[in-house]
Design a protein that fits this description.
single chain, Arginase, Chain A, 18% strand, globular
C-alpha cells in the first residue's frame, strides 16, 4: 500500500480538533465502510454524523471538570476506502492504524460497520503483542465463525480477533444477542459479561492494571431508546448515563486506541445516536488526558 500520509491535507471537524497532526496526542480517523452489514445499511455515514452532532456539545465536561481544549486532538477526516471492496478497505484501515501507532499517538476510529475494528486491533496487537487487552462493548457477541458463508463480517469480528489474540485477553460487556454456540464460546473462551456493563467493567479495569488496552464500542450496546440510529437495534441495553460512566473509567487505564462503530442516521432524524457517540468520545478523551496528568 502507498503511504497514506495521515495528517496531511484537509482535516475533519470533530469538536475541539485542531489542524496539526505532528503536535497531536490523539487522532480521529473516519472509516466509512458498511459492506457486510446484515440488516440496515448506512453506518458508512456514521463518521460524518458523529462529527456533525459533536458541534452541539461544549468542550467542557462537568462530569470530569475537564476540557477538550486541553487535549491535543487532530481529526484526519475519513479514509478513502474502495467502495464495495472489503478486503482492500481493511488493508487501508490497517495501514492508517499502523502509522498512527508508529507515531506514538492515540488512534480513535469512527465507523462504519464493526468489521473496521479488526485491522485496527490487528495493528495494535502487532505493536503490543500478547500484553494487549481488548474491551468489547456490544449488544451482539460477534463470535460467529462465519455469517452467510463469509468469515469476514461485522458478525464475526471478535471471532477473527481470536485468530491472533488469546480469548483470556478479551472482555465482552453488555452482550444480549447471538447464537447459543456464540454464548457458549464466550463463556468458555473470553471474559464474558452478558447484559451488564458498569459493574463488571469496574472489576476488569482493576484486573488488567497497566496493560495496553484497546476499546471497541458498538453503539448498539446502548438501549435503542437512547441510541436508535444503528443497523441492528437490540432492546434491553444499558442507558446513556451508564455508557458515559464506562467512558470515565478509561481514565484509569493505559488506553492505546479505540473505535466507535455502527452509528447511522436511518431512524434517527434528531441525531440522538450521533451526539451520544460524540459525547462518549469527548468524555473518553478528557478522562484519558486527566489520567495521564495525575
Amino acid at each position: 500500500m502507498q503511504n497514506l500520509k495521515i495528517g496531511s491535507g484537509a482535516h475533519g471537524s470533530f469538536l475541539g480538533s485542531m489542524g496539526n497532526y505532528s503536535c497531536a496526542d490523539a487522532v480521529i480517523i473516519g472509516a466509512p465502510m458498511d459492506y457486510t452489514v446484515s440488516f440496515r445499511p448506512g453506518s458508512r455515514m456514521g463518521p460524518g454524523i458523529i462529527r456533525e452532532m459533536s458541534l452541539v456539545l461544549e468542550t467542557y465536561s462537568p462530569h470530569l471538570d475537564g476540557d477538550l481544549e486541553d487535549v491535543a486532538l487532530f481529526d484526519h477526516g475519513d479514509l478513502e476506502l474502495v467502495f464495495g471492496n472489503a478486503e482492500k478497505s481493511l488493508e487501508i484501515i490497517y495501514d492508517a492504524a499502523e502509522q498512527v501507532f508508529a507515531d506514538g499517538k492515540l488512534p480513535i476510529f469512527l465507523g462504519g460497520e464493526h468489521l473496521i475494528s479488526l485491522p485496527v486491533v490487528k495493528a495494535a496487537y502487532n505493536k503490543y503483542g500478547s500484553e494487549l487487552v481488548l474491551f468489547h462493548f456490544d449488544a451482539h457477541t460477534d463470535l460467529r465463525e462465519e455469517y452467510m458463508g463469509e468469515d469476514m463480517s461485522h458478525a464475526t469480528v471478535i471471532r477473527r480477533c481470536m485468530d491472533f489474540m488469546e480469548g483470556s485477553s478479551i472482555y465482552q460487556f453488555g452482550i444480549r444477542s447471538g447464537l447459543g454456540e456464540e454464548f457458549r464460546l464466550g463463556r468458555e473462551r473470553t471474559n464474558f459479561y452478558p447484559f451488564e456493563v458498569t459493574e463488571p467493567l469496574e472489576m476488569a479495569v482493576k484486573k488488567i492494571g497497566d496493560r495496553p488496552l484497546y476499546v471497541t464500542l458498538d453503539i448498539d450496546v446502548v438501549d435503542p431508546a437512547y441510541a436508535p440510529g444503528t443497523g441492528t437495534p437490540e432492546p434491553g441495553g444499558c442507558t446513556s448515563m451508564e455508557i458515559l460512566q464506562a467512558a470515565h473509567l478509561f481514565g484509569g487505564c493505559n488506553l492505546i486506541g479505540m473505535d466507535i462503530v455502527e452509528v447511522m442516521g436511518y431512524g434517527d432524524p434528531a441525531g440522538i445516536t450521533g451526539v451520544l457517540a460524540a459525547k462518549i468520545l469527548r468524555e473518553v478523551l478528557i478522562a484519558v488526558s486527566k489520567g495521564k496528568r495525575r
